[in-house]
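Hey, quick one: can you model this chain's 3D structure?
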Amino acid sequence: MLIRYKKSFEKIAMGLLSFMPNEKDLKHLQQTMKQYEADEFWQLFLWKEDDDIIGTIGVVFEDDDRVKIQHVSVNPSHRHQGIGRKMVAALKEQYKTKTVVPDERTKAFFEKCTEPDC
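Sure thing. Here's the predicted structure for all 118 residues.
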C-alpha cells in the first residue's frame, strides 16, 4: 500500500533513499529529505506491506499534467518481488489524470516496469 511520507518515518525513508546511488552522501541525503518536507511540488511516498515499510518512491510535480519519478528504492531483502513495479502502478493509479514519467536516474527501471510482458 502506498502511503504519504510523514516526519515520523524520516529515518526509515532516509535509509531507503540511501540505496539510491546519488543519495549515498549523508549531507546530500539530508538536503533531499528537507526538499521533500519543505517543497509542495516534491512528494515522497512509502510502500507498506504487513506493517513494514519496505520501499519508497519520490516524485516532483513538474506542472499540472506531469509527475516525474525521481527516486525508487526497495529494501534489499525485499527486492525482485515486484515491489518497485507495485509502487509505480499505485502512483500511476493515484495520479491517473496526469502523465507519470521517469527522470534520468529512474528511466531504465520505469521502462522495465511498463514492458507489456511484466
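One thing worth noting: The chain has one domain: 2-113.
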